[in-house]
Fold these 3 entries.
Entry 1:
Amino acid sequence: MPMMWGFAFWWVFGLIGITLMVMISWTLARHLDTTHPLGATGGLNAPGGELIDPLLIVRERYAQGLISKMEFDRLVQDLLNTEPPNSR
């Protein structure tokens, strides 16, 4: 019996490890679900669920200096060409 006493509770560590993995996975899944920009329909959605205007994103990136003037003009032109008429 004294020899088994050292090995009797090792299964607890496995149970704790599995519990921690489940909790971390659940937390990551919830975090990624709320911060991912693509909604279920494939449209751009903000975390609150409202639609994001792609032109606003391009303007913000240009204002932050993340894209050049030439790239900004090209992106705006591409976005305006893909919009249906009378949408603005």
Entry 2:
Amino acid sequence: MKIISGTAKNLELNIPKGTAVRPTAVIARKSIFESVGDWDGLTVLDLFSGSGVLGLEAASRGAVKIYFSEKSSINCSCIRENILKLTNAGVKCTAKVIEGDSKKFHLNFPELHNKIDIIFADPPYELTTNIIDTLFLSEKFVSWAGSTLLILETSDKYPPGLNPNFLKMWRINSIKKHGKSRFYFLKPENNL
């Protein structure tokens, strides 16, 4: 797996061995990142980081602060190794790996309220329903997110827009489909 653009373009990244990590495909990553456009100076949160490829790609493209939230210690070690590779390739950013439950990140870091520009959320597909019900339908999380752009990756089998409560809390700006994955570009409704 490689970084596809920016300062660390073509840098080969480590992938955690022996885990069920599902890195976002290159074509999907390219589409997502080009949709946002300019990454310079952004603060990014990569929830359910896995290999950390989304946050690492953001750093290579100019994001200045990246938070990685991942509960697997094996995955966290791999992300730290990849951050070192990026740093050695000339990427300048502040990166912090937080080992813990991504569903509780907003509770553990209240000082980041409305200070994250983009949140990536790529939970294991089999947990999507649970994550939507416990995190994205939480008024505390929506309020904490502030004016952020949330990019949610799901299986094409679970469109969150079918849940009427979800649509009360999140505005779907766009949907991109790549293979069996869907990417929802969301904004909290309380910030319209």
Entry 3:
Amino acid sequence: MNIINQAMLYLLNLIHDLVHNYGLAIVLLTVAIRMALWPLNSAQTRSMRKMQELQPRMKALQEKYKSDPQKMQAELMKFYSENSFNPMAGCLPMLVQLPIFIGLYGALSSPHFLAETVDERFLFLTNLSKTLHSNAGQPLDGVFNIQKDDTFSTDKHVTLTLKEGKTIDQEVADPNKLIQIFPKPMLPGSPVHLTLDFKAMGLSDDYKNMVQSAEVLVIDNKSRELERIHFENENGALSQVVKTASAGDKSFIEEFIGGIARNWDVTLLILVYGMLTLLYQQVMTAKQPKPSKDDPAAAAMQSPAMKFMPLMFAVMLLFIPIPAGALIYLVVTTGMMLLQTLWVNFNEDRKGDGKSKPADQIVDIKADRA
């Protein structure tokens, strides 16, 4: 996945060199990827639409042969063949797309990208690295705004300067284990002592006498505040004392409301994402036949509570410190998915070939039981 992350960062920087704005670069790259995968996405949408249309008859077959699983499987395979339907057709496009989108999201959330976009504005967004969390301080000012239970991780790359003057770029296997903190728990407002673990960098003890200094991007995992820390070798240990400021001893409610009010631009972006998600869900289920009153399970799946389930992820974004740049990606991706589904549904409705039997004309297979 790291290769995909690096590829996405390379493409983002390439587009940024042309448009000179990372926000616009995110939009253009996301649109380009969605367009490249348009055929796969369309096939997935058509497969899901057809499955919704065939679902009542599939359910009836399952009910008819529920006492004979082997016969049920054979009849379902025959049913799929007669209707030119492959139940796995909708899964393959998702498997192909998933690594790409995870890689792009990972690139947008990486410390390296956050450092590049600290002062980047886009539309109504004042900072592409900003999150909703209210205890974050000014990034890259050398001071962490912390609470005593905050934890830290680093970028995947550390710049090491050897005593002989050579500089090397060292990849970190586990960024969550690179930083050692003292004291624990931390005292907000008091300096903290940070040390880099040579083993976490994949280096032997021999390097303790070879490395003169190191520099790495350090990120507060809770607030996503980012600082570039320079470590000096002191008796074989790469360490640095970092200033901190108290983020305030606020209750969860105070911190939550304060973050939403102060970072209104990020809040607005999350609301836009929530509305697009709801619209997409409604479009996706628009062609799904109404469940029978005799099928409580199907009725439950189409209940208002289930239809609003995708909004739960949008609500979760109010609590998860996701950078604004990554939110732009989510908004554009969901918007493109909505437009593509509308386009596929429009074209399928225009065909009007009558191959799929409407739900209200389906013959009850249970009636011809032996």
